[in-house]
Amino acid sequence: MSKYGGFQVKENIGDEFQRATKYYLESLSGKSLDWTKMPEPFKKYRAASTIPLPNPQAETLPLAECLKKRKSVREFVQKPISKEQLSFLLWAQNGMREAKRGFIFRTAPSAGGLYPIETYVQVNDVEGIHAGIYHYNVIGHQMEEIVTGDFRREISYACLEQEMCGKAQAVVAWSAIFGRSKWKYKDRAYRYIYLDAGHIAQNLALAAVSIGLATCQIGAFFDDEVNKIFCLDGIEESVIYLSTVGHPP
Fold it and tell me: How far is 108 from 26, CA to CA, in rounded Å?
């Protein structure tokens, strides 16, 4: 056992998690779901001021060229990105593709179609949008204002002093509402949640390259400090992945 921040933490907890969440042929059996307890699939800040986003349209490079050009970029030219560019990126990473037969289909896959990942944006320099923290409303394709202000210093510190977070025009943060997946998959849900975040991050990275922008995905950060910036409790909902977005040199 080791002590971190006053908590006792088991050694090799990652290995234990991997073993404890395995599926076994002899023990896996179908279980009925209580549909009355299914979590709400979309988050909405009902009292927040909203910023409508333009239709997510853009002239893009071919996929093969995007794959060849995609790389992690840590330096950014200091000029704003447009609201149109941000709109396209938010839609491309995990936006609504179509509504059909009562289901919402998105641009990224998700285990069981449960979509536990929520998207937040720290705006540093986007035309027509004040600097601050916003939530992406998938259904309305709009930004919901959580708090305005300059958080470049805070996000750089929270991401282990990675200065690119302050230099980027925006920082995208993906949180997980764990209960959405745990309702169906129990502890196995955590595996799927991290896979979901990876699908979404790759969508963002390729979409950014396709319109002449660049990203760098971030997995190293102080969890509590990042959650504080995005006003999350870190228990029911917690940031699990981030990415910078900006103009490459």
Answer: 32
Q: Are 145 and 50 in contact (CB under 8 A)?
A: yes
Alpha-helical segments (H) within the chain? 13-20, 63-69, 83-94, 152-158, 164-167, 178-185, 189-210, 223-229
How many whole angstroms separate alpha carbon 208 and alpha carbon 67? Answer: 11
pTM given for the model: 0.94
* Rg value, the chain, Cα: 19
Q: Domains of the chain, with CATH numbers? A: 53-246 (3.40.109.10)
142-148 and 132-137 beta bridge pairing: antiparallel
Q: Region 138-148: what's the mean pLDDT?
A: 97
User: What's the mean pLDDT when you consider all of the chain?
Assistant: 94
Distance between CA 204 and CA 216 in Å, rounded? Answer: 10
CB-based contact 203:215 (threshold 8 Å)? no
The number of CA neighbours under 13 Å toward the Cβ of 72 is 10
pLDDT attached to residue 25: 86
Place of tokens 């289901």: 103
245 neighbors 171 (Cβ within 8 angstroms): yes
